[in-house]
Amino acid sequence: MKKIIASGPVIVCDNRLLVTLDKKDNFYKLPGGTVKGKDSLEETCRRELKEETGFECRILKKLHTMKLNKNPSTKEKMKIELHHYKCELINSPTDYKSFEHNGHKVAWIYLYKIIEGLYSVAPNIPFLILENDINADIK
After folding, report:
1. Cβ(90)–Cβ(13) under 8 Å?
2. What residues make up the domain containing 59?
3. Number of domains observed in the structure of the chain
4. CATH number at residue 105
5. Listed residue (9, 8, 14) closest to 110, CA to CA
6. Residue 138, pLDDT above cutoff 70
7. At CB < 8 A and 24+ separation, what contacts does 123-131 make?
8. pTM of the full predicted structure?
């Protein structure tokens, strides 16, 4: 069975979560991607953030890992491990406008709108909210 190990950052600024949207999926997801070669999970986290958003970050701590038995988009059976890290941007954003970067729409979504179900998001986002890895002052 195919196995995927992926890593990515969880970045919250002013009660907004940094997410991306690409042509592969019809839901917002955390920046991130698969481990390549001998890269560590932390190196993968930083690399994928830079590739997908242009931002650079510092890793603050490891968060919960989500394990899936099928691809959320294709429903193909496979083993997926999603490793998450709480991060902070090296340069904080000056505004929260959406923009395009390397084929990804980059957006800052209010956490309360995610919790209220106003956005379609990847399954690891509600998972991390339930684990209290992502939290905010609900408006």
Report:
1. no
2. 3-130
3. 1
4. 3.90.79.10
5. 14
6. no
7. 123/66, 123/68, 123/72, 124/29, 124/30, 124/66, 124/82, 124/84, 125/17, 125/19, 125/28, 125/29, 125/30, 127/64, 127/66, 128/10, 128/63, 128/64, 128/66, 128/84, 131/63, 131/64
8. 0.92
